[in-house]
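Suppose you are handed a protein chain with no further information: no name, no annotation, nothing but its sequence. What can you learn? This example shows the usual starting point.
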Amino acid sequence: MSDRKKRRDFYQDIKRGIQQELFRELDFSKELGEEELFELIDEKIHQTALQKGIWLEERKQMRKEIFQSMRQLDILQELIEDPRITEIMINGKDDIFVEEGGKLFRWENSFDSEEKLNNIIQQMVSDCNRVVNEASPIVDARLENGSRVNVVLKPIALNGPIVTIRRFPEKPMDMEKLIELGALQENHSLFLKKLVLSGYNILISGGTGSGKTTFLNALSNYIPREERVVTIEDSAELQLVSIENLVRLETRNANAEGCLPITIRDLIRTALRMRPDRIIVGEIRGAEAVDLLQAMNTGHDGSLSTGHSNSAADLLSRLETMVLMGMDLPVAAIRQQIASAVDLIIHLGRLRDKSRKVLEITEVCGYEEPRVRLKPLFVYRYGSEKLEKEGELENVAKLQAAGLDPYAES
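A reasonable first move is to predict its three-dimensional structure. Written in structure tokens, the prediction is:
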């Protein structure tokens, strides 16, 4: 065993011993302020340091970690507070993986026990009114800072508990930042801005981690401030800072107290009675596709959503399947509904260098039996490493009504 590993194990043993002493001695019936708790931790560390020979840097780190274990999210707090970390994956108490700068690596820390990890999970889900247990072992939640949390417990997760935390930037990423990162060019963002202003119904597609939610958030900033917008999400992630008349809705799971679930479908139907100018659905993945298409087809122009797919054409195929999950209709009727509702699909992807790019901007040009006709407007070319123009926008009625030219430079 290396000296570093020995020292690490020594440090963890000392820290665990101090934590156990504090838990035995603290009176949890009394409210204890942060300063008082830090004083007690400092006293214990000082006593142990004299006996065991703990280095000064180790004392500082131990002080922070013990406080986090008692008042915050234990060892996860350090990762949650690090703005460079974009994803945290916990596979049981011993295996923690972290994504930083698009690269995945194993973190050296681990939880003291599975019980400690379970306590942290209960703390996370209870803070946003969610429940997870053996009877309901899967839940989506969010942290106070907006990070998305997915939990899967035993017996579903064989090596569980499994926790996946997607951390979003504290400051919402706008289109200017996406241009700076090379996700698209300025002329494309200006083109999309005019379409959003004109009320085009837009879907954003892509695989897991391709940046769909981030792009949806950035695109939503083009919505005029005076419009009334309703956002609908499984777990609230969108950060629309420019909209004043904003309603945010979030689904609810069923629980042991007898509360019935409230689904995306329920929320879309409710939103239609709220006099929205636009409806933004965080992600469509099931029967709610029926309700979103109907909303788009009944005067709620400018609505936005995202969906998992491998291409723009693939998203349409998935939409057909999702509609069939909620309503038994002929495929031709479904395709006509899609062609009438959706104006544009923006497809995102993650390249080999881990960068996220807009790979395709495609117009939905109507229904021509037997399928919906798609027309690529911009396509990412790997030789030039940028979006290149493929065709002209056909449906310009909404732009004309708004008095805008899609390709003008201002």
